[in-house]
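ARCHIVE CARD
CATEGORY: sequence design from structure
SOURCE FIELD: tokenized fold
FIELD CONTENT:
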């Protein structure tokens, strides 16, 4: 029942945090060589340090500065999105991930977290689109599995909801005892 659902939420929450820490480092490593002004790189480095220490508001300030100095800095945009995501500011996270996906098209991570931000806001169609992109582009592994899991969850409840509505009346009468 409800406790099983809460355990699932806790499990996925822990899994997401583990993925975020592992994938974030690989994302940064894959995009660090991109051309950028020195000041943008300094701001990005400071923001990344704050992000890794869990100082998300400070990271946001530094990463906003980095993106302002170099609007094509995909890694700065991605980590800015992650910093907003961790403070549950999903609209700002989506804005940052929108920039990250433009400059890091090959990386499924910004799509996943943009999808997750949409999901947290109840924007299911946008979430589905991003999770589908992850499933089609990510290599086999935890990120792809998690995106598939969210897709099943997004598509399943609609079917279950329809079933619930169809069977609501008969289930009430089932419990009526005939004497």
């Amino acid at each position: 029942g409800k406790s099983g659902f809460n355990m699932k939420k806790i499990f996925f929450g822990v899994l997401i945090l583990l993925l975020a820490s592992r994938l974030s480092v690989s994302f940064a490593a894959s995009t660090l060589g991109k051309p950028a002004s020195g000041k943008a790189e300094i701001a990005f480095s400071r923001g990344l340090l704050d992000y890794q220490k869990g100082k998300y508001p400070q990271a946001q300030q530094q990463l906003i500065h980095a993106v302002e100095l170099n609007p094509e800095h995909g890694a700065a945009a991605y980590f800015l999105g992650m910093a907003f995501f961790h403070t549950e500011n999903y609209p700002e996270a989506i804005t940052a991930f929108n920039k990250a996906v433009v400059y890091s098209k090959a990386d499924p991570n910004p799509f996943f977290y943009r999808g997750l931000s949409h999901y947290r806001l109840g924007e299911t169609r946008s979430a589905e689109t991003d999770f589908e992109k992850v499933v089609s582009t990510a290599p086999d592994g935890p990120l792809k599995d998690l995106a598939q899991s969210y897709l099943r969850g997004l598509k399943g409840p609609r079917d279950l909801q329809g079933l619930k509505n169809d069977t609501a009346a008969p289930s009430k009468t089932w419990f009526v005892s005939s004497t």
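CARD ANNOTATION: Residues 29-36, 159-179 have pLDDT under 50 and may be disordered. The CA atoms of residues 56 and 87 lie 7 Å apart.
SHELF: design records, drawer C
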